Amino acid sequence: MQFSARDEKEVALCVKELNSPCFHPSMVCLWVTDSFERKDTERDLLAKLLVHLVKSHDGILSQAQLIQGFESVLSTLEDAVNDAPKAPEFLGRLFAKGIIESVFSLNEIERLLRDGGEEPGSLLETGLAADVLGSTLEVIKFEKGDAILRDICVGSNLQLETFRPPNPTTSIKLERFI
Question: What CATH topology corresponds to 8-175?
């Protein structure tokens, strides 16, 4: 990444000084896509940074801009897994952090995954949506426990079975929660 995500205030100031809100979704997409090639520490810092930018009092990054950035990431995920096979897992971790920090809901992630891909719905067909969702649920369970995960899932009325890919290959991560 071209910045130090360790200094959230510095990054926030730089983003604010750019004064280009229409670029924010692209910035999110670039950062997230770049994080697929980074270490866990850097991805965790990025997750914290994104939460900070959305929750900052200055409203530097809106929830809508963050979601648009993730839509762009998901539109290229099928290609990204060729270079970064763990991209679905990494993306799931980012989504989990956003859900845990109340930056967005599981319902919003469900919509992103259903509609995402090179073609709308293609992430469901390839099983990548199941992998991302499974990873998201796994991280929430690990960090917050079964009870919180259950509350989040019940509150979203999520039907996990609908994320099963149509072909015989199944997502091992998602199957643990079905």
Answer: 1.25.40
Average pLDDT, 10 consecutive residues per value, the chain (178 residues): 62 81 94 94 92 87 96 96 95 97 96 94 93 96 96 92 75 71
Tokens coding 42: 């850097």
81 contacts 87 by C-beta, under 8 angstroms: yes
Measured CA to CA, the distance from residue 165 to residue 155 in angstroms comes to 24
The end-to-end CA distance of the chain, in Å, is: 36
Spans of all domains in the chain: 8-175
Q: Give pLDDT, residue 169.
A: 60
pTM of the model: 0.88
- Residue type for 51, please? V
Output the 3-class SS for 41-64.
Answer: HHHHHHHHHHHHHHHCCCCCCCHH
Q: Which residues contact 125 (CB under 8 A, 6 or more apart)?
A: 117, 165, 166, 167
Q: Are 12 and 60 in contact (CB under 8 A)?
A: yes
* Block residue for tokens 């200094």: 7
